[in-house]
Specification:
By secondary structure, this protein is of the alpha/beta class. It has helices spanning 25-37, 45-51, 53-59, 65-76, 101-110, 121-129, and strands at residues 4-10, 38-44, 79-82, 94-96, 115-118, 135-140, 161-168, 174-180. The mean pLDDT is 92.
C-alpha cells in the first residue's frame, strides 16, 4: 500500500504564501529528494499553475544546481491535477484527474508504487477531512506574513497529530513530520 504524504510550506502563523518563505538551496534539495523518492504528486489547479514556473528552468537553467535539480525532479514526477477549469495541462508528465479526489486517492493508495505526495493546501484539507493522509510534512519558515490564507482554516474537526521527527534547516525553517491520529480513538489514520 502506498503512503499519502502531504507536504506544505507555511509561515509561523500558518499563512500559505509562496512569496513569504525563505527558499534556499537546502530547502530545494529537501524537496528534490522528496520528489525523487515518490511515485506521484497530486495538485489543485492554483498550485499546479504556480509549479509550472519550474518548466521555464528546464529550458533556461538558473545556474543554481539545487534549483535546476528541483526543476528536473518536478518535471520527472507524474502529476495529477484536479481542476474544473483546465482543459489540458501543457506538461507531458501531468494529466487532469478523471475522478474526484476521495475516489482517486483511495484507489491509488491500494496500487503498488512510490509514495503519493499532496502539494496543494485545499487538497490537503480535503484529504485530512477524509482521514486518508498518512503523514503531514509541515515546513514552517521563521517569518510572520501578517495576513493571508491560513492552512487549516477549512478543517472540519479537531485533529491530533503525533510528531514523528523534525528537521532544522540552516535558514531557521523547521520541517515537522506528523502522523495524523484518529479524531475519535487516538489511533493512526490512513
Amino acid at each position: 500500500m502506498r503512503k499519502i504524504i502531504a507536504a506544505v510550506n507555511t509561515t509561523v502563523e500558518g499563512v500559505l504564501d509562496h512569496t513569504a518563505g525563505l527558499p534556499d538551496e537546502e530547502l530545494h534539495l529537501h524537496y528534490t529528494n522528496l520528489l525523487n523518492s515518490a511515485g506521484l504528486i497530486l495538485y489543485g489547479r492554483k498550485t499546479y499553475e504556480l509549479m509550472q514556473y519550474w518548466q521555464t528552468l528546464l529550458q533556461h537553467p538558473s545556474g543554481i544546481k539545487e534549483q535546476d535539480d528541483f526543476a528536473k525532479a518536478i518535471d520527472r514526477i507524474p502529476k495529477i491535477v484536479f481542476s474544473r477549469h483546465l482543459k489540458q495541462t501543457h506538461w507531458d508528465t501531468a494529466e487532469l484527474a478523471s475522478r474526484p479526489p476521495e475516489i482517486l486517492v483511495t484507489n491509488l493508495k491500494q496500487e503498488s508504487g512510490g509514495d503519493i505526495l499532496i502539494g496543494s493546501p485545499g487538497l490537503i484539507i480535503q484529504l485530512l477531512n477524509l482521514e486518508v493522509i498518512d503523514e503531514l510534512q509541515l515546513c514552517i519558515h521563521p517569518v510572520i506574513a501578517g495576513k493571508g490564507r491560513l492552512l487549516f482554516e477549512e478543517l472540519k474537526d479537531r485533529t491530533v497529530f503525533k510528531l514523528l521527527k523534525t528537521k532544522q534547516l540552516t535558514s531557521g525553517a523547521l520541517i515537522l513530520y506528523y502522523k495524523p491520529l484518529s479524531r475519535n480513538h487516538g489511533t493512526a489514520v490512513g
